[in-house]
Write a structure and sequence with these properties.
Keywords: DNA recombination, DNA-binding. By secondary structure, the protein is mainly α. Helices cover about 45% and strands about 10% of the residues. The longest helix has 20 residues, at about 115-135.
Length: about 375
């Protein structure tokens, strides 16, 4: 029940009871304002859209942490989201009450982010998700992040090494790790998939293929461990050329795989990892699973000698593999499956510029048709 009464001091006291039976009251100088406030609250109560005014007092950081820990993210994504919020979002919105954040504040924040457009869009996606959850939880009435324009994003630059650079790179890598280059160039694996590969994932005889069914993960504060592939689509079978198989066979002959004790988190149903004796194809010189710092110390000197730009890593060889498939006429769907992308859209967003231009294909098709027609046409009769 709602009511409006005039106080002895001339103010109008408006009040109503929320769904929990608690009285909510405000004072207004004008009766019309008090009536409007009561009417809005009554409408919200009747339509089920009521939001407790006190709920919006929670700070952005406190609510965002509730959202983050409840989200169905894997350990790696959890860690990434936490670091992103602490570094790029909380300094601006962390201490603000959820109900006090305005669309202009969100727009100004994302516009001023000192990040690449693609990264800024990811930061904005977190903020949008947090405010949408707050609306569903009836913490706020509406999200201030809807309709925010992210920074303009051009096509992501894809660095593809030249064959001559790969020759130098291979020569500068320690012999023990040259087959890493051969494998990524020949199969397009991600870095974690390379160092999580076990011997039983290789078929040297009948199938001449490789199965990607796990990866090596480095997620702080957990120790290095085996984990499922990045996505469901990343679990795949890749046909291997004989030259790639030969390189892997030579590597294993020179450095036989030994069993390495490592935590195994590949079974998503298990809360705690089990210990596994894994036969990893690539390990450190001490026979331990590779770590990011260990591989960086191996890769960086060789990459610099080959003229590969700083901050360009093993992923560049994956781009080389993709470009080879496209150059030899493989379709978008085939390239998607070989790379383990979650969708063809991801493949096109990354490599669309590598497929032949439609104008070129039109010219080639017409030229081929005209040549074929000319070859089959009877000789033109001579004019009399």
């Amino acid at each position: 029940m709602a009511s409006i009464k005039k106080r002895p001091n001339g103010m109008w006291r408006a009040r109503y009871r929320d769904p929990a039976g608690r009285e909510v009251a405000r004072h207004f100088a004008r009766k019309v304002d008090a009536q409007r406030w009561v009417d809005e609250a009554t409408t919200a109560l009747v339509t089920g859209q009521y939001v407790d005014p006190a709920a919006g007092k929670v700070t952005f950081r406190d609510y965002a942490e509730q959202w983050r820990t409840a989200a169905p993210h894997g350990p790696a994504t959890q860690d990434k989201v936490r670091r992103s919020l602490e570094r790029h979002v909380y300094p601006t919105f962390g201490r603000m009450a959820m109900r006090s954040v305005r669309p202009t504040s969100v727009q100004a924040w994302v516009t001023a982010l000192p990040l690449a457009p693609s990264t800024a869009r990811v930061m904005l996606s977190y903020v949008i998700a947090i405010f949408r959850a707050a609306v569903r939880d009836r913490v706020i009435v509406a999200s201030p992040a809807e309709g925010i324009r992210p920074p303009t994003e051009g096509r992501a630059e894809v660095y593809i090494p030249e064959p001559a650079q790969l020759e130098v790179l291979r020569g500068r890598l320690p012999e023990r790790y040259r087959a890493v280059l051969d494998l990524v160039v020949g199969a397009g694996l991600r870095q974690g998939e390379v160092f999580g590969l076990e011997v039983d994932g290789l078929d040297f005889l009948a199938g001449r293929e490789l199965e990607v069914r796990q990866q090596l993960r480095w997620v702080s504060p957990d120790p290095v461990h085996l984990a499922p592939p990045k996505t469901v689509e990343a679990e795949r079978t890749i046909p291997l050329a004989q030259v790639t198989l030969d390189a892997l066979a030579a590597h294993l002959a020179a450095w036989p795989a030994r069993r390495v004790a490592i935590p195994d988190r590949t079974d998503r149903r298990r809360r705690e990892p089990r210990q596994k004796a894994a036969q990893l194809v690539f390990t450190t010189e001490h026979g331990q699973p590779m770590t990011r710092p260990s591989w960086s110390m191996i890769w960086q000197p060789a990459a610099r000698a080959a003229g590969i730009p700083e901050r360009v890593g093993l992923h560049a060889l994956r781009h080389y593999y993709a470009s080879a498939l496209i150059h030899h006429g493989e379709s978008v769907k085939v390239v998607q499956r070989r790379l383990g992308h979650s969708s063809a859209t991801t493949t096109l967003n990354t490599y669309a510029h590598l497929w032949p231009d439609s104008d070129d294909r039109t010219r080639q098709a017409v030229e081929a048709a005209v040549v074929a027609l000319s070859a089959s046409a009877p000789p033109h009769p001579q004019a009399r």
